[in-house]
């Protein structure tokens, strides 16, 4: 899922529905629905952004993402075949088509953006109109004719939580999912770790000290502010990460609540694996596709970092996992980096600890406010930034 200015496209991102299944053909009278209720401005912008084909192209071309979903659907085919599926924020409908081809009796494909019009045409072109019902609207306002056996959604934003689409999935779970039903993905884990990135610091900050032989150091303070005032979405490698990762949050989609989503605080304590400057903190996530009775690779916040790595290594090639970690194949989510204005020098085995709070913005619940505290070697740094 791609956000607004961070990806070069306008506005935030993705769709959540409105209208009943009877409205799928555009027959609003038959659906018992008049004009759609007015949207909040942030929702209007959010849904409008997902009308742009470029966003869907980027997501579908993300092979890691799309293959993970296809693998998960086929792995759980026994839960899908002959069953009713709800696709929350279906976009172009590709996941709905995957489910239909896996034998789903019916798929309700719900999408609030205008791309729903094209999704309906895609379903028709693939001769799946008897199985897939595309509903143009928000999931919070949909009136389905039956409960569903499976909920599937690609709800993850940058830093996992950006865009705040997960509450819509939880709403659908509480209203429409049958007891013992399947949610894909089922579990998500957000990781964090201090990172070093001297090349980027040099290119963004030190660059101004000598430009074509001209001393432009007067711009260095402004460059530091520009580099660190907002989270950066970029790809880093495992060599940039200077400690084992800490778990910021583990989410079980079968039990997590929208209330918990509003504000999450976690304390962390890691040890530097090298002598290097810390330029900031990196965040990335993994999602798993497990049934409600299956044991997930549960990563509680106090789990030893080595156990996290060991759990990852024990996974078989058949496990359905989508990872955005620096050491794994890059995805369109990349990693989210919170840069400091100035680097902090650390020695090998030096303790780095503090806390992070991520909360929904009051001005726009699709935005995130981030408060990070970091203490190491007698230095304490406090960083506040917003993800808009």
From TrEMBL:
The keyword Transferase applies. PROSITE patterns: SAM_MT_PRMT. One of its GO terms (biological process) is methylation. Residues 187-291, 318-374 form the Protein arginine N-methyltransferase domain. Keywords: Methyltransferase, S-adenosyl-L-methionine, Transferase. GO terms for molecular function: histone methyltransferase activity; protein-arginine N-methyltransferase activity. Pfam families: PrmA (PF06325), PRMT_C (PF22528). It comes from the Eukaryota. The keyword Metal-binding does not apply. Arginine methyltransferase that can both catalyze the formation of omega-N monomethylarginine (MMA) and asymmetrical dimethylarginine (aDMA). This is Protein arginine N-methyltransferase domain-containing protein.
